Amino acid sequence: MKLFGHPASTCTRKVLFTLHETNTPYELELVDFAKGEHKAPAHLARQPFGQLPALDDDGFALYESRAMARYLDGKAGFKLSSQDLTTRAVMEQFISIETSDFTPNAMKFIYHHIFGRPQTPEVLEAAGKMLDTCYGVIDKQVATRTYLTGDHLSIADISFAPYIEYMAGTPAKDILAAHKHAQAWWTRVSERPAWLKTVGRA
Ligand SMILES: N[C@@H](CCC(=O)N[C@@H](CS)C(=O)NCC(=O)O)C(=O)O
After folding, report:
1. Could you tell me if the CB of 8 is within 6 A of ligand 1?
2. According to CATH, what is the number of the domain 2-75?
């Protein structure tokens, strides 16, 4: 199992978190953003959009981090996704919220405060309002649950992690802190050994 990516990339981290949670052996092949390797022909052959990450499982090639998380989870016996119809539907609902409503707005804060790509105050204000709505939805969900779909971590929790981690270094951390159940959920997710390995804290 080869993962072509970068340890600081949010989408690479989503897949690394899944690999660690499922105890899947892998090799990380570094694709160096700084050298533009993600836009070089070798990587474009793996990922036509020139983005990280890409996966190669003994000749089976896959891109898109959420597809990889689902594939790796299935291969490991669905440890991170319930086969119960309604539980699975809720997981997919939260992965969609992450993809459509959460991440595009989280990235505004991450670009502005972490990656040196300035955003206007109006853009940050609108993004903050959307994040507040997203954290409100999460807060309600985890008020009575350990993780987003119940007692077990799922791909839904994993999908949010890389963005919340980066936002800890931005004013958006206060939006999360205003939702005490969501904040407590993030503490549980971020203290998992698999996440600590993903971000190099274990
Ligand atoms: N939908 C893709 C998004 C991948 C993506 O945007 N990756 C970022 C790094 S986290 C990237 O490579 N950005 C560089 C670029 O788009 O040129 C996925 O989930 O894998």
Report:
1. no
2. 3.40.30.10
- Count CA atoms closer than 13 A to 120's CA, side-chain side: 3
Mutate to test the pocket of ligand 1, among 35, 51, 199 (most ligand atoms within 8 A of CB): 51
User: For the chain, what are the domain ranges?
Assistant: 2-75, 85-195
Dist. CA 101 → ligand 1 center (Å): 17
Q: Tell me the three state secondary structure of residue 4.
A: strand
**Residue-wise pLDDT tens digits, 75-128:** 999 999 999 999 999 999 999 999 999 999 999 999 999 999 999 999 999 999
Surface-to-core class of residue 77, CB atoms within 10 Å of its CB (0-12 exposed, 13-18 middle, 19+ buried): exposed
Predicted confidence (pLDDT) per residue in 173-193, tens digit: 999 999 999 999 999 999 999
Entry pTM: 0.98
The CATH architecture annotation of domain 85-195 reads: Up-down Bundle (1.20)
**If you measure from the C-alpha of residue 52 to the centroid of ligand 1, how many angstroms do you get, rounded to a whole number?**
5
Residue 172 near ligand 1, beta carbon < 6 Å: no
Q: How far apart are CA 72 and CA 145, in angstroms?
A: 25
